[in-house]
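Our preliminary data section would be incomplete without showing what the modeling component actually yields. Below, a chain of 429 amino acids is followed by its predicted structure, encoded as tokens that our downstream tools consume directly.
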Amino acid sequence: MQPQMDTDGHRWTQMDTDGHRWTQMSAAQNGTFPRGNPFTRKCPKARRSKTGARPSESVFIRVHLWFFLLGLTNCFSLVNHTVKFKSMKLHIILLAATMLAVSAQAQDKPDAFMGDWQGSVSIGAQTQVVSVYMIPLDQGNYEARMVGSFSERGPYLFRLRGMIRNDQFRFLDDVPLNASQVAGITEKGVVFAASLWSGNLTGDSVQGSVTGRQTGSFELRKTKRVSPDLGQRPPAGALILLDGSNLAQWHKRDSANPIGWKLLTNGVMEVAGGGDIVSKEQFGDHQLHVEFRLPYMPGSFGQGRANSGVYVQSRYEIQVLDSYGLEGFDNECGGFYQIKGPVVNMCAPPLQWQSYDVVFHSAKRDANGKKSANARITVVHNGVVIHDDFELPHATPGSVNEKEGEPAGLLLQDHGNPVQYRNIWVKRL
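Predicted structure:
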């Protein structure tokens, strides 16, 4: 049973003017779910002018060690004033408890600025429509990656880094701080060839100017794409693996013991240690629906940022990872690790519910038990087809076994991050 698709391979019943296949709402129309960058590989450079920049046209950047030295001073002060071992131990315990409390609060605290933005950028005489991935970084900073449309893989038109604070939008071109980017030297420091993007935030919109290496203006507004498949109810004959009432359909990966994951309110199951979990029921050909939510981890990167995985038939992992705004490689959200990346990266920002809808046809074996045909899979991520009847050549790393063609359970990966799941069901085909 293949998912219904429109003419360009997207499962969707409505299309807006720039081709998005998610339900799109303005910030004022956002639904009930809260809003929310790992760098797993080097990213292609954004398109920038190849002409040289004079110091007078550039923004200048000075690098200081002040914060580092201040941190060392505070550390030495703490040691000097904590003479007794017991007192020092108490300081450490209190500090750790405070950090844990802050971390717990940050997990569910919505970030008003991360996520999707749209608008236009005018550089010189050229104006272009842009879609922006506002990726949260550590300590309140962001990376803004601008593309022509969210439905496209790239290329990046502009890549910026900066902050949004006190209604001020201040970003710089994301240029490497090395000698190749030095445009000049003044008595105040080194001048790098970059542009400053600055503006004033009003509600969910920002207007501003571009100065320095390039000159122009921009205007952006906050928006949000929501999966049209959230809350999809199981069809007749489907087996419900998670409806939030209990965890009875699951056991630990290597034993029949009950799992250690948390059952939260509103039908949610959260990764909470204890290792991978596997469904008690085993499946051959089947249709699968899974909803998941990534934790907010702006200080983590790469494979340490909201990592989990959905192993179809316990052998073929569809990556679950906070790779919002990234290129969409095989080790990022929606990819089959070391096999194939998604056609387009449809990963939503953290703290926003997402969906996978899968149609899977198991590998086949001949009378001698030898594999005669590879498994095939279609994956719909947040309403968009990211793998279309793709042939899986082999199991992915971390699989329970490589006995392809044999029925097996659905495996959810524990990678140490509090990823959440809900509304999981399977229908045999």
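The helical segments are 66-81, 85-108. Confidence is low (pLDDT under 50) at residues 1-21, 23-106. Preliminary results of this kind motivate Aim 1 of the renewal.
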